[in-house]
Structure prediction request, 106 residues.
Amino acid sequence: MSENLENTAKSYFDHKIPVVTVKQKKPLVEWAHWQTKPQTAAEFEALPWSEADGFAVICGARLDSGLYIGAVDYDVKNVNEEAKEKGQQALKKILCTQIEQTPSGG
Prediction:
């Protein structure tokens, strides 16, 4: 799994998005410095991929296009129908380029 995980993460890194390896949603490395300086190829390759069960991206990174990466976590479990509908309406107002499903189905 780690090779596929690393390949997927590399596609983000190739767009200048800093990547952090995680295990059970906890970072495996110190990552705060990548909020203010770019992650190098050597730093990306040195991440502990064999220990990881996932990866995170650092939001706020400026892409080559001049845009910035951000994320919205839209919860659909354990909320009432009104909250789901309000969330759907809010999402319609946001430029969305990618949607991911969580391992738990969210």
